[in-house]
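Aim 2, interim progress: modelling of the G3I-bound target.
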Amino acid sequence: MRRVRRPARSLALATSLLAGTLAPSAGATHLAPGALAEAAHRVGFHVGAAIDHDLDAARREIAAREFTSATLENSLKWGPLSPAPGVYDFSRADAVIDWAEPSGLRVRGHTLFWDRLNGTPGWLADEVAAAPDPAAHLRQRMETHAQTVVGRYAGRLSQWDVVNEPLAALRGDLDPLNLFVQTLGESYLDIAFRAAHAADPDAELFLNETLVELLPAKFEGLIALVERMLARGVPIHGVGLQGHFLLAPPDPFALRSQLERIAALGLRVELTEVDIPISLFASAPDPLAAQAQAYGDLFEACVSVRACTGITTWGVDDGHTWLDSFFLTQQNAPNRPLLFDASGQPKPAYDAAVAALALRIIDVDVDVAPGDPGYRINPSSRGVVAVAILGADGFDVFDIVPATLGFGPAGAPLAHAHGPHYEDVNEDGRTDLLAHYRTQQTGLSAGDPDACVSGRTVDGLAFAGCDRGSVVERSTASP
Ligand code: G3I
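Predicted structure of the complex, ligand included:
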């Protein structure tokens, strides 16, 4: 693999870039057009936008140039698709897909079963209510719908949001107001996913949910639901976290922890509908820079987790966002929540997203043991762990995120929620310090002598080590 060594950066710039805090001053980006898609391709990652049949020519040009993925915002929902029982109008969905595919965009289907707003046609509830056997009737309608819609695009759509928002708005239990829940209980999810899988066995099937990033109890409910589905053998391949950060910017550590928990289930995870309104940063000296940091944090959290394969923003640019007409956010219009401004120009958030995609996450296991005279880590070490990423031509010193190194008897509960942790990964009887160190270096591979870290804790105690093949290497091929 060609080694690309970036020129050594000043510590301040490197640190801020690595910490996702680099926020270019407001104004035009210095990056070349298409930098976002190119950065995503380079690390086998998807960056997408919600689009639809009414996307004008200027936005189509941006979408095809800057993104690698497209989600249909409305035209594949049951309501817009089927105005009457058994009647389907695919003209708008076909127009979008027939453009997106030759434009080189991965296409995400959104969404087969969603009982909110126009996600479900009004005639369905009437039919179910009048049916002698509502459950049997609804099941049959669901299976026909999945076969009709997913089957139509079999082999062309990579992913489907099969079920959207099954949980109660602000809780972790199934939504009692949901027609599918009322009629079929939790089994409606099994019916939905099995029918979609039968219609296109190659499509990755996602369960998509909202607000779980901000509501821990709702996230726990989502995890429990997915675990039950997996235990029943339901063909689910991924979870979508919508990422509508309406109340607060993303917490990178909490988000990364959620992504890792979904990954631990053996599933893919994507951030599927991201918007971060500028109103969240009204008190910041430079709101655009603060929004850029939030996007940098978001991209860095996802890039850090191998199973997190994509981020889709809910719109191409600030000129078209549902937030400007949503009852909770329309009073803040223009919400300006996306990567491009209303005139289609990249914002500082665009630069931050590209920078985050350039990060290399190296898992390094460093042979240390509390009390080891060579690499003793003081059990009470606290604070920022400064590390040196050693390289043939000098080294870059980066401060990584503040890490609380809590060591104690092997197996003791770790004293920190994020940052470095320890375990005897190579089973040599010595405790290894596992940490995620960020570097701007690219082209590193497992065992590369550059992929070494050494440094001192704030207590001045030294440690050193090199990755042992545990490099989180993102393939350069697209996923
Ligand atoms: O197409 C009709 C048009 O013919 C009619 O004249 C007009 C006025 O009634 O309505 C148009 O349909 C609207 C549609 O957007 C297309 O613009 C619907 O009323 C309107 O409810 C719909 O809003 C969409 C909403 O989902 C409900 O489907 C938003 O654009 C879309 O951004 C939003 O996206 C959802 C995701 O699908 C799921 N996650 C939450 C997210 C935000 O609500």
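DSSP finds 13 helices and 15 strands in the chain. The CA atoms of residues 166 and 174 lie 6 Å apart.
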